[in-house]
Amino acid sequence: MEFLHLLAGIFVSFGAFFLLIGSIGLIRLPDFFSRTHATGKADTLGVMLVIFGLVLTQGFSLNSVKLLIIIVFVFLTNPTATNALARAAYRFRLTPWFKNDKSKNKEK
Amino acid sequence: MTQYFIALSVVLTVIIFIPLYRVLTGPTLYDRLLGTGAVATKTMVLILIIGLVFNRLDMFIDITLAYAILNFIGTIAIAKYLETRGYKKK
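The joint structure predicted for all components is written out below.
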């Protein structure tokens, strides 16, 4: 039982690390289309790792099944919402950022 | 174990304040929407960890599921609305 709690702590710590990386990416990346990578992939992995750590603390019960359902839901919906926002921005002709472009992105 | 999860909830609260900067000073509207989505995703994890600290995880899981569904529906609705607006404008 103690071993499972230790493993849960390790998983939750890794998840919090990925959530921190996603937040820093949301601040530091130069463009909207590159910021979608930070919140679409790193945040999803962080949430999944934290909830899987909570599953390990619960054992085999109704709570762990519900938590697994939340994992599947987040895995399906978080990239979908990000993709919908990115497609709306692309249809709105938001100019992407290129490497030699010094100007900030602005709505055209 | 409870001490560790209380410390983790404090760390997550600090992490939630980082995308709030992008919400407040985003260059475009889409950056602000992305920041609100990131804040809502991290709030889900915070609700779950607070439920584990309070030993009422069965109640807080349902709250988290409803919160995740509301976040997803809201983001999809706003994105579809802005997409049609972009079509009409150009």
